[in-house]
Amino acid sequence: MGGRFSHAVAAAVGWCLAGGSRLAAQTGATVDVGFAGVRYDGFLPSTAGSISPAFRLERPWALVSARGTYLRFESGRHSLQGNLVASLFTRSAGRLRGEVSGSVGASRYAAFASFSHILFGPRVHLAGERQGAWLGGMAGRSSFGQIRRPVTGFSVGTWTERLAATWLVSTTVTHVGDTAYADIEGATHWQHGRVAFDGVFGVRGWSRGAGHGVYGEASAAFAVSAWLAVVASGGRYPTDPTRGSVSGRYLGATLRMTALPRRSTRPLFIPRVVPQWHSPANGSDPAPLTIELHDCRCGERGQILLVRAGEASNVEVAGDFTDWEPVSLSPGEASTWTVTLPLAPGTYRFNIRIDRGEWKVPAGMIRLIDEFGGAVGLLTVR
Amino acid sequence: MRRTRWIMALPLAAGLLLVRSAAAQDPRLERRLDVATREAVGVIVDAARAAGLPVEPLVDRALEGAAKRADGPRIVAAVRLLATELAAARDALGPASSPVELEAGAGALRAGVPPADLRLLRQRRARPLTVALAALTDLVTSGVPPDSAAAAVLALAATAADDQLLDFRRAVERDIALGAPPAAAAAFRVDAAIRQTPASRKP
Questions:
Q1: Interface test with A, best of B28, B178, B188 (most A CBs within 10 A)
Q2: A 264-303 → B contacts, CB under 8 A
């Protein structure tokens, strides 16, 4: 259970253990239906619709949480992902309690090979009335198609209830094959009447192959009734090598329908399950900048450059074949832009620019680091 | 004698001055670069021409820097580096290599591909190497270790068409974007590509 999901579930477990027998058994089921603007790092922004059922069962000795998400992008492609977490707890020994947990999940994007993972691990909880801590490890496997990588890691964290909110700080170190990273996170949950707020802020300060940087997400829910809530959420999240999701950012809104309302009168810290917008992405989606070459059959080695650029009011190309003078393309239908150029067979360095912004490399093209602080694409004409 | 030598020297000096000015007076460079940068680039271009290296890639690189608003020293450094790499690529790929092959080879060397692998690629692939070298460079810049990338491309070099090499490169890039380790993605896809190349199909 790498990353944020792990710590969130651990915190929820700790809170449940602290509540002990005073909590009634908890069962909850929700379905979120919504839409969002998403932007995976390296790709153009897109919108997506989603439907995401979730189920949660809590007993004094067990916790089961499951979530599935179906995402449909504006391109028509879709992704499907699901995750199941289950924990069993030992009897208490004073304030200490043990836990054995397992997590399985899978995701699939369009027709590409799917990601899946299976993880197990022990934890030790030190739970008080309003604060607690945990220390745990995990091991398992992450798979991409036939490629399997071992996963190991450990996490340590602490939580407390102060100022009418629950606060959590954790450190998680994860190894997925040759990839390794460490995240330090803080999270909070606050609820007052009909309004609930969840926030996460984290830093990936050490990484080998999983990126660096800060990230954060927040969601605010307003309960219209016992059965219906409106949720607004957004933020930026890091790459998850275990689940195969690339980093990105999103801003969205959902309607949350509660099939099984909670019976407890005490506010329950609901862990933030992997947000539904964390979806596998590939070089062809959601709405990437792409380029195609077509023979114009107009002699003189003419080639039509066709660029798909999403929302743009001006598209230019510059490269070895234009002496690096920007050449404007003409708009066509369905966000396409074209220009006809004489291109002899060969390989050319080039870039595309949208609305006089940065020079970019279209998705799917060979991409090289240039000597000027950016990247350049390689176009091969045969 | 001394006077004769001076007379003989004068036209040679004038000729050198003329040659040095020719590159710097390329109208494309004149329009796009400041005087100092243009002169410095001109010296590099002339030296490359004298060494029998292709000069158009050098001019293109300078123009690319101008288009991307790089400062003069950076443009000169980029052109000088490319000239050095073109020479190294010619050593590895052979003197009969085309200018586009040399430019692609220079890119591969800069990405970290050993010269010995370029020589092997020349030996194994009868077709022009441009696409193979470009695919190899892209694999390395995508994170595939140079030895793994070279092994993958060399495995396909003898039988795969240019289209197949590009498809292979695209598939590896997609797998890496989805989180697969680069070396494993390359190994996985080369197996699939080998099974599809004509030489491995059963009759």
A1: B178
A2: 280-284
A111–B contact, CB cutoff 8 A: no
Inspect the interface and report whether the beta carbons of A324 and B130 lie closer than 8 Å. Answer: no
CA-nearest of A222, A200, A213, A203 to A274 is A200
| Spatial CA neighbour of B136 closest among B145, B126, B127 | B145
- Same domain? A235 vs A299: no
**Do A76 and A126 sit in the same domain of this protein?**
yes
Parent domain of A374: 290-381
- Cβ atoms B62, B27 nearer than 8 A: no
Shortest Cα distance, chain A CAs vs residue B168, angstroms: 12
Q: Measured between CB atoms, which of B64, B162, B180 is closest to A370?
A: B64
Residue B73, min C-alpha distance to chain A (Å): 11
Of A178, A367, A374, Cβ closest to residue B141: A367
pTM comes to: 0.49
Inside any domain, residue A139:
yes
**CATH code, A181:** 2.40.160.40
CATH of residue A349: 2.60.40.10
Give the integer Cα–Cα distance in Å for B108 and B93. 11
The answer to whether the CB atoms of A281 and B178 lie below 8 A apart is: yes
Same domain, A91 and A237: yes
B71 → chain A, closest CA residue: A372
Torsion of CA A202, A117, A59, A186, to 10 degrees: 0
In angstroms, what is the C-alpha Rg of chain A?
Answer: 24
A24 and A110 belong to one structural domain: yes
Q: How many CA atoms lie within 13 A of A213 on its CB side?
A: 12
Together in a domain, A247 and A327? no
- A85 with A180, same domain: the answer is yes
Whether residues A253 and A327 fall in one domain: no
Of B57, B68, B138, the CB nearest to A359: B68
Residue A285 forms part of a structural domain: no
One digit per residue, the tens of pLDDT, for chain A of length 382 reads 333 444 444 444 444 444 433 334 567 888 999 998 887 765 667 788 889 999 888 887 888 989 998 888 877 777 888 889 999 988 888 888 889 999 999 887 655 557 888 999 999 988 877 888 999 999 999 887 777 888 999 999 998 888 878 888 999 999 988 788 899 999 998 888 888 899 999 999 888 777 778 899 999 999 888 788 999 999 988 878 787 777 788 899 999 998 765 444 333 333 333 334 444 333 333 445 777 766 665 555 677 787 877 778 889 999 999 999 999 999 887 778 888 888 877 778 999 998 888 898 887 777 788 889 888 988 877 6
| Spatial separation of the C-alpha atoms in residues B139 and A6, rounded to whole Å | 34
Which among B28, B68, B136 is the top mutation candidate for probing chain A, defined by the most A β-carbons within 10 Å of its own β-carbon?
B68
Q: How far is B182 from chain A (nearest CA, A)?
A: 10
Strands (E), B16-98: none
Whether A169 and A210 share a structural domain: yes
Task: Assess if residue A114 is contained within a domain.
Answer: yes
Enumerate the β-bridge partners of residue A84.
A66, A104
Q: Which of A147, A346, A373 sits opposite B100 (nearest CB)?
A: A346
